[in-house]
Amino acid sequence: MKLLQPKHLSDKHWYELVVGSSIEPAIASASFETVPGEDAVELVLGKKLESLGGHAQQYVTKSVESLLESYKHLEDGGLWCPGTGEYGQLKPETPRKDEKGKTIKYENPPGVPLGVMLPEGPGINWDEIRRNVNIPVGITEGKKKAASASSRGLNTIALSGMNGGLKNGDLREDLKGFDWKGRKVYLVLDKDPSHKLKTLRDGARELYKLGAMLDYYGADVVIGTIPGKLKEKVGLDDHFAKGRTLADLRWRTVDDFGLNSPYLTQKYRDHNKERMERGFSAYDNPIVRDDGTRNYLDFGLGR
What we know:
By secondary structure, the chain is an alpha/beta fold. The protein has two domains: 2-82 and 84-92, no CATH class; 126-278, Dna Topoisomerase Vi A Subunit, Chain: A, domain 2 (3-Layer(aba) Sandwich). Helix content is 35%, strand content 14%. It has eleven helices and ten strands. It has helices spanning 11-20, 25-31, 37-51, 62-70, 126-131, 143-150, 173-176, 197-216, 236-241, 254-260, 266-278, and strands at 33-35, 78-82, 88-92, 137-141, 156-159, 166-167, 170-171, 184-188, 220-225, 250-253. Helix 8 (197-216) links the parallel strand 8 and strand 9 (220-225). The termini are far apart.
């Protein structure tokens, strides 16, 4: 396997991707890059620094100085996960912590709109996938997980996080670029430990919201959850790295998930019943009508 390692991935990152996340070498090579500190700073902060007047000046402003100090940890470099347009995520070698002391594992570039990340590799043609509804698509959070699923033949879109598929009660523009009508979609997010009830409820809510919206656009959606009571957070790549398959996940329709998930509140159960009764469809009941008013699909769920 070492013979297949490309020069643009460090030994550490190559092992993390190919062994730790069970990603095919060709997909790992085409989808990720190890970047040194200077490049990491530019990739994450380039847009923000540009809006502040840049940092390649004789006199650095206080705003620029403060920003660079906040992201000083980027100087150690990291793993770059490129996305659509200017978007991408960096996994820093030395991650910072937020105000609550929680480690920020991935950095989103400030000032750059959130996008999606699409694994690349032999036989993966996203232009064809967008157009051809006969090609099933997976959706998960994080590019390593998407690349791991793509390594198993399910071309999978990576969201920036659990709530990265929707914006203002509708699909994000990057997802609107796909033809969904009649397409089979496999939707899987991370599963948190059993004692983290709030996080489990948040995850279930986002799964239902995105699943319901894709269903609204005509997709044939199934929601997969990682089975069992867990002691630590598990993603799709962890699931595969343990030798498990897509068939080992628990699959349910959006309707079934909306009615029976133990982590959804009554608000979402009621919404699901309403959605089923009304038979919402993006083709005969658009989210934004011709007169500019919104229909009743999201119940404010997109916020």
